[in-house]
């Protein structure tokens, strides 16, 4: 049985960094010794000591013993606390168990930094005021270490700078050394890219904006990056070295007046123009050669006073280009909807209207308004002959662009029953030869419609209560679809139109609502994007390779949405997080190792 006096000696050795002495005290302990206690207070003492012993054992390289013997003993002690619940001990017991589990994760090789953030960070998020100072220092150190192993030196440094003071001279010196090491490595993209042969972190700071970021974009050739915030400031960068090319503030007054909280940035296919979709049906176009706003398209939208009465929020204008850039599609819309605030009026006509223009001349080719309908999906066919429009929970229409007439109509389009998914969604797509339109239905099905009408529709059930939240086509015109289920884990399925049923590709974490799927078969990459996370997987076997999720960088539940732009050829991901614009790397990474 471990006494209070013995525990105090253990803490003394630990705070002094005398890990050998601490280890020698318990190397001969058997399972029965760890489980030998009198009451719940004694059980907690055993948990405290075992947690520290597990940590020093891992640092000494005894990974197998920890995984096979010591950590299961800690689990058993924790389990006994839940069976014999005593309130005054329960919180500390849970903290000990969760932090120790996070430490085990952090010292694994390879280390999944996001698992560590989720394990330890969420505990700090929940119980920051209750956690003991010694335990808090351990949590900060190992979350920082996990960030370093992931190559995220930016947030490693941020965590250390927020650390509390400690009475332990050993840990105080250790944390100062770690902070000094981080300070020796440049974390700015512009600095690091000047010396490409040097080792670099996997995440670098490009710039900070005046306010939170609305959207980011990378040009098709990967040479330029664009970022715009909610103050209306737009910055353009050269991706080769991070050089700031222009800061455009033409629409700052407009953003302030409309209390804008969303924006869309889209480069034209040739990279010569950047379309900026703002509130109230406004699209402004930047001429990249001149680095200035060159023209505008203005169509009716809702101003911020009208948004509130109609229960819509975060208005912006969806804008997209056809494959060659000949056409531009404009749809005033809003990202969020609050059904409890709905005053009973029909869906605003502005949100059921789309405009197709000749981008070169600026001429309106045709427009159409749907009565009491909300447009939530659109796609140009690859051959630029057709435009597909999806109306939330209602119809799908296929339009002949040249004639400005609908040619196909179906009445079972999907409705994503989330208040934050009322903007534009990736729930319909064309095959590469433009012969088939594939979309998600509100009956938990996937439907393929032959554009020329020469073949019957092909329908495949997905199985209720799954809802298809995103669709993409690979080079063989197989449909990759994300299936979301509120009550269980989400899944990724693949389906070829000749197949009798869909094929399960992988199970995703939790009930994830995937917004976008990107496939790059040339580089064997599969990208899954949701509201918070960008995840890179191996397309051939669906194995997760890397993940970017600012939600866990600072373990804050208050930031739930981020902006991403991906350029596979460059091996870069552009991340907009709060007011930070960052560049992440996912190919040929030369990680900076702690102590190197």
SSE diagram, text form:
Layout: H1 4-16, H2 19-26, H3 31-34, H4 40-59, H5 63-83, H6 87-106, H7 113-127, H8 133-149, H9 153-161, H10 169-183, H11 189-192, E1 203-208, E2 213-218, E3 224-229, E4 234-238, E5 243-248, H12 252-258, E6 264-267, E7 273-277, E8 282-287, E9 292-298, H13 304-309, E10 312-321, E11 327-337, E12 353-358, E13 364-369, E14 375-380, E15 386-391, E16 396-400, E17 405-410, E18 428-430, E19 436-440, E20 445-450, E21 458-461, E22 467-473, E23 479-484, E24 491-495, E25 503-507, E26 516-520, E27 525-529, E28 534-538, E29 544-548, H14 550-553, E30 563-567, E31 572-577, E32 580-585
Antiparallel strand pairs: 1-32, 2-3, 3-4, 4-5, 6-7, 7-8, 8-9, 10-11, 11-12, 12-13, 14-15, 15-16, 16-17, 18-19, 19-20, 20-21, 22-23, 23-24, 24-25, 26-27, 27-28, 28-29, 30-31, 31-32
Helix pairs in contact: 1-2, 1-4, 4-5, 4-6, 5-6, 6-7, 6-8, 7-8, 8-9, 9-10
Q: How does this model look, in words?
A:
By secondary structure, the protein is of the alpha+beta class. Among the domains are: 4-183, Serine Threonine Protein Phosphatase 5, Tetratricopeptide repeat (Alpha Horseshoe); 210-372, 7 Propeller (Methylamine Dehydrogenase, Chain H), CATH 2.130.10. It contains 14 helices and 32 strands. The protein has a 4-stranded antiparallel sheet. Helix 1 (4-16) runs antiparallel to helix 2, helix 4 (40-59) packs antiparallel against helix 5 and helix 6 (87-106) packs parallel to helix 8. The two termini are 43 Å apart.
